Amino acid sequence: xGHRLKWVLAPLLLSAALGxxxxxxxxxxxxxxxxxxxxxxxxxAMTALQSEMGGRAILLGYDVDSFRVxxxxxxxxxxxxxxxxPLVMVGSGYRTSSGAVDYEAVYxxxxxxxxxRPPRAAVFAYWRRVGDAMRTYVEVRNLGATxxxxxxxxxxxxxxxxxxxxxxxxxxxxxTGKRYLPYDLAPGExxxxxxxxxxxxxxxxxxxxxxxxxxxxxxxxxxxxMAQAAEVLPADLSTEPDHLVMSPYRPTAEVVLKGPHVxxxxxxxxxxxxxxxxxxxxxxxxxxxxxxxxxxxxxxxxGSVSFTATGDGMSFSTTVRVAAGAQVRRSGxxxxxxx
Length: 339
Hints:
- This protein has helices at residues 37-53, 72-77, 103-115; strands at residues 7-8, 26-32, 57-63, 87-90, 95-98, 121-130, 133-142, 155-162, 172-180, 190-196, 208-216, 225-231, 233-234, 238-240, 243-246, 252-258, 264-269, 274-277, 280-282, 285-291, 302-311, 314-324.
- By secondary structure, it is mainly beta.
- Strands 1-10-7-6-13 form a 5-stranded mixed β-sheet, with no helix packed on it. The chain has a 5-stranded mixed β-sheet with strand order 15-22-21-17-19, with no helix packed on it.
- α1 (37-53) crosses α3.
């Protein structure tokens, strides 16, 4: 199977709805060889640490003989003092390790140091299967104080791995690909892309996982640096929250719509006393629900808002449930609930 990916670039959009990521996702990458004793010992340590980190880090294994280009060059750019297997890095080369070490202790230290650094970008990514290919929808926002610059090789990587025990780890990479940002990304600015792999026949799609990371190279020569990474989620439309309690005392609430950026959505309420603003748009976004108590019969205490979204051959729907509190009588005196 070839390891080179082809890419489809979508029109770039701005999205004010992307939430800033608060925590960095650490990515540790190990280049080893099946049958190498040190590599297999390091792989066992990686598997243990992956569980220990509880989603704060992703530890990836590569066949060093198959990935002479595509991420291994990041390790080499850090100018390591030694190049004995296994070759290991975090943060695209921010810190490296080589050869036989106290694997769990050293890798844990590398990961914890990486987690302590604030992210310089927010990354959101979704995927869906198209035939035997993986199509990925990516959004990146610059959280830093300076541009993510093309002159500093600012780029997006897609790394695809199988979540199963093969090679020397339980997360064995099968393909990587890179796309440079289309222009310098200013602080607060968002770019979107569609990335698609060539066909990958014969793989177990139930075990396939994608990772997207953003990186640049602070100096013209020297180590690269990862700004942030995110696991690629299955394409879907979701709301946050999916249940609300509203009343005349709290007549408005916000709902965040999340999903691939190619989706266009519309909303419909099943009762006249819930107003949705706006009632349509593109994902991701935030909408406001407003309770209209003058339109609500006393007997009605529940309603719902349905969201439907379509785009790039996809169609999704989801519902937000709304529970309404007691109505009140209006007067110049203190209000009391209507029984």
